[in-house]
Design goal:
- The complex is a heterodimer.
- By secondary structure, chain A is mostly beta strands.
- Chain A has 4 helices and 34 strands.
- In chain A, strand 15 and strand 16 form a beta hairpin.
- Chain B is mainly beta.
- In chain B, about 5% of the residues lie in helices and about 65% in strands.
- Chain B has a 12-stranded antiparallel beta barrel.
- The longest helix of chain B is centred in the N-terminal third of the chain and has 15 residues.
- Chain B is globular, with a radius of gyration of 23 Å.
- Classes of the chains: A mainly beta, B mainly beta.
- The interface between A and B is large, with 51 and 33 residues.
Chain lengths: ~600, ~230
């Protein structure tokens, strides 16, 4: 690799002095307030379009919290520049590493050859300091995606950006103007330190721990018997019902397009326009609930894939997910984009406005959620969605949308066991593996609820409480009819496991370092069943292959790249193993990822 | 057939090379805890109890140290060097050596014990100690954290010391030797440190305390505490 043709390479020493100057500048009185940060205020990340890109990864002195800190950025921008590609075109991206450490870029949600996927150790060896890597692939899809580092905890330090792929043909979504709304979380502290702190005291950031006062209130309102019943499980499990987010607003500033609430990013519009917002969650650890008070949103795409439009007031977006929404502000006034963290410890906000002066009211945060028995996989309150169905014989007729209309023959998997048809989701009883019994696993969902129809903790009663309609996964249906209508040949159950207090995360009780790869046969179609044996909400991302979320109708199955698995619940999706290679499969919460990670290896016929 | 096996092996070997896909799941970490650093109201007594560990999720090197002081000197001190291993979701076993220091003597013991969190959030630390004279002792610590608010925490604690045999030299009987109960009220301005006040009830049976040779010397006293807890 040539070392000559990189004018932007900065020697380490030079960088340090530059960073020092930067911080000196930012440290000047009057410049220190977050509002007047020199680098980021009022600016949207630049957009790069075309087929040939040069991305330079380097350190960047930033001031996000009011203090200067060091970020890793692409081409001097945090977030990284938005990349605009065209479906059907080949793109060539040269990524230069100016850091003192290895780096990488993963194109999240993009279907591409395995050596272009950017996961060190699986796709390639990573990009060494002072060197570069050529990514080259043909873009075979359209929509809103994003890219980020897949090395260490680099993503947390600012290495993320949006990808927009314009469709080759006409866009089924009509709009007059668009904005990228990139959500993220920022801490001035190095990510390794945050992770170490959680390992030393896992509830470090929980400042809503249950108190004696809560017990007193429960006793007064519920009486002794019910309080005892309620508390007994938590006490036996030695867990906390306010354990919602491992890291929250105490450590984080929540950002939209790199701006904290004080800096308040602005997106412009003219009244009467159809606005397309490409909402991308690039946060390391934060699940957001997104809404725009005063505007109904029509969701037109999930994870870049067009869906049948659905009108809602609010949606939950986990790290790595993307939603495209259309809003039509009729009035000539400002609106607030409001994204509160799942535990209500903080929020990101920005403004949609006809001009650069107006600002709308910032709403108060909703009530903080508490976990229930349902979230511990205990079945209570799960209603009809509890996984009480034993292995029910499901029947299907080829071509039928809903399996249970036809009663002709029972579908069997390759081992002769009954298997539910495509779209129906797994109907099998949940069994726990022996590998789950170890010090790293503190809980098993005995009766996991079905997570498909669950908007998630804190949102379940939103309609009654606030009159807001919240998006559910069961609302998602592909706009384009699916061509692959095959039933799954087999089911693969994977349990998401962990130990809250030891802060250990794994799959099937085995951490990545000790695990074998999940092997798929090229061309096979199978059902992944994820069972969440923890009380945390995990967004699970499969690289290289689509996760076809089983929302019912096999012809309208929506394709996702990242799927939320609700606490103590399960969910299933279909996977067509149509890309040979070594793919990463993991929880997208950054500090769960090191352990809750698997290699999925798709082997060709010869292997 | 052979080649295929070799290829598979090679593939596995490649797979086994370090993957930097994410951060390190189980990095080497250390924690230092000042459990109690307190002054007691009675006779200028003080106590310093610290713990420290270095290790990984499942295996840790654990250090426990305690010093009971009295104006100007050490009345009693002990140092434990332990290997601690996770054996169940909420439980660890530990084993190692303890050295006790007092004005008169040094005593080394072999330690084996269990530490963890029982249902109802009861913190348990129980150890057996065996010395060269085959004297067997046991210590049990039980504590609870009652959170009054996000900052104020009330911690009742019981510490028992038991002996399997009587001690002719000191005249101690077998059975319960000391029974310490305490109640500490912590104020956490931040997660990592808290000043506290407390009450301590000490009961000692036998002559281990002050006057060797004197039998059935039962001592009982109540004391006020003022102290600091912190971890790094």
């Amino acid at each position: 690799m040539s070392k000559l043709d990189k004018p932007n390479t900065i020697a380490r020493r030079e960088f340090v002095s530059r960073a020092a100057k930067g911080s000196l500048l930012l440290g000047l009185p009057g410049l220190a307030a977050p509002r007047s940060q020199a680098d980021l205020s009022w600016r949207t990340q630049p957009e790069l379009r075309g087929q040939r890109f040069d991305l330079h990864i380097d350190y960047l002195a930033v001031n996000i919290s009011g203090q200067s800190a060091l970020a890793t950025a692409v081409n001097g921008s945090l977030p990284a520049p938005t990349l605009r590609w065209k479906e059907g075109e080949e793109v060539h991206i040269r990524v230069h590493n100016h850091l003192a450490h290895d780096t990488s870029i993963h194109w999240h949600g993009i279907i591409l050859p395995t050596d272009m996927d950017g996961v060190p150790g699986l796709s390639f060896a990573g990009i060494k300091p002072g060197s570069y890597y050529d990514y080259r692939f043909t873009v075979k899809q359209s929509g809103s995606y994003w890219y980020h580092s897949h090395s260490g905890f680099q993503e947390q330090t600012g290495l993320y950006g949006a990808i927009i792929v314009d469709p080759a043909g006409a866009d089924p979504v009509a709009y007059d103007r668009e904005h990228v709304v990139l959500l993220s979380d920022w801490s001035d502290e190095p990510p390794e330190k945050l992770y170490a702190r959680l390992k030393k005291q896992s509830h470090y950031y929980n400042r809503r721990e249950r108190t004696v006062l809560d017990l007193w209130r429960d006793l007064r309102s519920k009486g002794l018997a019910e309080t005892w019943q309620d508390r007994a499980m938590w006490n036996r499990m030695r867990m906390s019902d306010t354990d919602i987010a491992d890291i929250n607003g105490i450590a984080y500033q929540f950002l939209i397009n790199g701006h904290n609430p004080t800096a308040n990013w602005r997106g412009l519009f003219r009244a009467g326009e159809r606005l397309r917002l490409r909402v991308i969650n690039a946060a390391a650890m934060t699940i957001f609930d997104f809404r725009i008070p005063g505007l109904t949103m029509t969701v037109v795409a999930a994870d870049g894939q067009n869906i049948e439009p659905v009108s809602i007031d609010e949606f939950r977006i986990a790290p790595a997910e993307t939603y495209d929404v259309i809003v039509e502000p009729k009035a000539d006034c400002a609106y607030t984009l409001f994204a509160q963290s799942i535990d209500r410890s903080g929020y990101a906000c920005a403004t949609l406005s006809p001009n650069s002066e107006w600002q709308a009211e910032i709403p108060a945060m909703d009530h903080p959620p508490r976990l229930s028995h349902r979230d511990m996989g205990m079945g209570h309150g799960a209603g009809q969605h509890a996984a009480q169905h034993p292995a029910m014989p499901m029947t299907t007729m080829p071509g039928h949308h809903h399996g249970h209309h036809g009663m002709h023959h029972q579908l069997l998997d390759s081992r002769g066991q009954a298997i539910a048809p495509a779209g129906a989701g797994s109907q099998r009883a949940i069994t726990h593996l022996a590998s789950e019994r170890n010090p790293g696993v503190d809980m098993q969902a005995v009766m996991p609820a079905n997570g498909l129809d669950d908007p998630g903790i804190g949102l379940r009663e939103h309609h009654q409480r606030y009159g807001r309609r919240v998006l559910r996964y069961s609302d998602l249906f592909s706009l384009q009819p699916r061509r692959d209508l095959r039933d799954p040949e087999r089911e693969l159950a994977i349990h998401l496991t962990g130990n809250m207090s030891r802060y250990m995360w794994s799959m099937d009780g085995v951490m990545f370092d000790d695990a074998e790869a999940i092997v798929l046969r090229h061309g096979e179609r199978l059902r992944f069943v994820l069972v969440n044996d923890t009380m945390m909400t995990h967004p699970i991302h499969l690289h290289g292959l689509w996760s076809e979320l089983e929302t019912g109708d096999r012809a309208r199955i929506p394709r996702k790249h990242t799927v939320i698995v609700q606490p103590g619940s399960r969910i299933s999706y279909l996977v067509s193993a149509d890309a040979i290679g070594r793919w990463a499969y993991h929880c997208h919460l950054m500090y769960h990822m090191p352990g809750m990670f698997r290699e999925v290896r798709v082997l060709g016929a010869g292997a | 057939m052979k080649i295929e096996t070799l290829l598979r092996a090679a593939l596995l070997a490649i797979a086994a090379t370090p993957v930097h896909a994410g951060g390190k799941a189980d990095p080497l970490l250390g924690k230092f805890i000042i459990e109690h650093w307190e002054q007691r109201s009675d006779e200028q007594q003080s106590n310093l109890t610290v713990q420290g560990w270095l290790g990984y999720d499942h295996h840790k090197l654990w250090l426990k140290a305690e010093r009971d002081g009295r104006a100007g000197g050490t009345e009693h001190g002990e140092l434990q060097l332990l290997y601690r291993r996770a054996v169940a979701p909420h439980w660890d076993l530990h084993s190692g050596l303890r050295r006790e220091f007092s004005e008169q003597e040094l005593r080394d013991q072999f330690v084996i014990g269990i530490q963890g969190l029982a249902p109802f959030h009861l913190e348990v630390d129980a150890s057996l100690y065996l010395d060269e004279q085959a004297q067997l002792n046991a210590e049990l610590e039980l504590s609870l954290e009652w959170r009054l608010s996000q900052q104020w925490v009330l911690e009742p604690e019981i510490k028992l010391a038991l002996a399997a045999q009587g001690d002719d030299a000191t005249g101690d009987d077998s059975g319960l030797r000391t029974w310490n109960s305490s109640l500490r009220l912590y104020y956490y301005p931040q997660r990592q440190w808290a000043p506290y006040i407390g009450l301590l009830w000490q009961r000692q049976d036998g002559g281990t305390a002050d006057e060797p040779g004197q039998t059935r010397n039962r001592q009982q006293r109540e004391q006020w505490l003022l102290g600091l807890r912190a971890w790094f």
